[in-house]
Amino acid sequence: MPEQTYYVTCAPESEGVHVLHSDACQVFPKQAVEPLGAFDGCDDAFAEASKRYDRLNACALCCPSCYIRGDALGAA
């Protein structure tokens, strides 16, 4: 898988959760994002974002393998 650049929303979205997106996302946020860098997949990008933000999820469209369903996120 080729490297992609990943970003995380600076301000939390719904329920105080920051969201991880790739640069190829179809719904890339218009709000401010923090660049995380280039990674081979969302797993490493998610791990990097987790160092910066406690409440984190991934975009279901561009990072489906890292996306946590809403009910599972609340249980964490």
Question: Care to give the gist of this entry?
Answer:
The chain is built from two helices and four strands; from the N terminus they run βββαβα. By secondary structure, the chain is an alpha+beta fold. A four-stranded mixed beta sheet has the order 3-1-2-4, covered by helices on one side.
Distance between the termini: 29 Å
Q: Describe the biggest sheet? A: 4 strands, mixed
Which assembly state applies to the chains in this document?
single chain
What's the number of helices? 2
Beta strand %: 25-35%
Radius of gyration: 11 Å
Q: What would your notes on this structure say?
A:
By secondary structure, this protein is an alpha+beta fold. β1 and β2 (18-22) form a beta hairpin. A four-stranded mixed β-sheet has the order 3-1-2-4, covered by helices on one side. The protein has helices at 42-52, 70-75; strands at 4-9, 18-22, 33-39, 56-58. The protein has two helices and four strands.
Task: Detail the topology: elements first, then pairings.
Blueprint: E1 4-9, E2 18-22, E3 33-39, H1 42-52, E4 56-58, H2 70-75
Parallel strand pairs: 2-4
Antiparallel strand pairs: 1-2, 1-3
Short key terms for the protein model shown above:
76 residues; globular; 4-stranded mixed β-sheet
